[in-house]
Amino acid sequence: MAEVQAVKEPDTIRLVSHLLTRHHSQQMADIWNIGLNLALRISDLLSIKFSDIEEDRLVLREQKTGKHANIQLNPKALQIIHRIKEEHPSHIYLFQSYRNKQAINRSPRPLTRRAVSKALGTIGEEIKLPLGTHSMRKTRGYHLYKSTKDIARVMKMLRHSSEGVTLRYIGLTQEEVDKDFKELEL
User: Fold this and answer.
1) Which of 39, 91, 118, 125 has the least CB density, counted as fewest CB within 10 Å?
2) Residue 47 belongs to a domain with what CATH number?
């Protein structure tokens, strides 16, 4: 599996959303935008049920770690969630598979990780940036770190237990750390 990156430029974040809508579907763009705002692993993001959403909070148990996540939903995430619920009131999953013929005759299921990975991969090729299902989570972590410089806060949001893992995960390079030391004079 190829290493994917955080999207570091705000214009590129918006471009990815636009291209997903244009080349794939609004649902793929919604996954991107919700994924950026929740910083969940793709397995947890795709498994969100409307019943996991309590007013303005998402409450779930992470599949990989078993840790409890209680996430405050920001206005952008809430707006997208409400629109999806309004468009698909009978859906159980936030990102429910409903387009292919097989989905009609089976019990409801979320979109697959593979479908999302494929969509992000094609957009990544187009914009010459390695994108994948972890890009949303990495992007959120990177931008939180850049705005706060608080690695402990990023670790808590990503529910990591090591600073080194978090720094590597968000793609913070030695050049960026050096720049921070150089620019901040006390």
Assistant:
1) 125
2) 1.10.443.10
